[in-house]
Amino acid sequence: MIMKKNSLQSPITCMIGSSAVLEGTFRAKEATRIEGTINGDIIIEGVLTLGDKAVVNGNIISTGLVTAGKVVGNIKVANNIEILGSASIKGDIECATMVMDENAYFEGTCKMNRSENKDKEKKKA
Fold first, then answer.
1. pTM exceeds cut of 0.85
2. Which residues pair with 31 in a beta bridge?
């Protein structure tokens, strides 16, 4: 998978290989890359990267998401989501901003919460 220069970039500290199949909820407190299959929800306190062979049958909650894989489930991302050309998503998306390549597939609704994130940033300042 080739990442664009403007892609969400975070050092990957947790990796699930292409031959792995995980059942149940998967949690991590750092940037994570998944190449295998997850049958269950994913909760990541960081950026989640799904490779082009990744399959997720469950909901995703993360700080950010870059996906080239297949997701069947709802996605809630606090910041940005980037959907690459090989990606397929069937489910609803909630995010602050979204970039979707031309050949990506998305079936669902998208709710952009930019105002909520701006309010949080104002409170931090």
1. no
2. none
pLDDT tens digits, one per residue of 22-80: 999 999 999 999 999 999 999 999 999 999 999 999 999 999 999 999 999 999 999 99
Counting Cβ atoms within 10 Å, is residue 86 exposed (0-12), middle (13-18) or buried (19+)? middle
Residue 5 has a CB neighbour count (10 Å cut-off) of 5
Nearby residues of 109 by Cβ (< 8 Å), 6 or more positions away = 92, 93
How many whole angstroms from its chain centre is CA 124? Answer: 25
How do the domains of the chain map onto residue ranges?
A: 14-124
Contact by Cβ (8 Å): 107, 121:
no
Helix (H, G, I), strand (E, B) or coil at 124: helix
Give 98's strand partners. Answer: 81
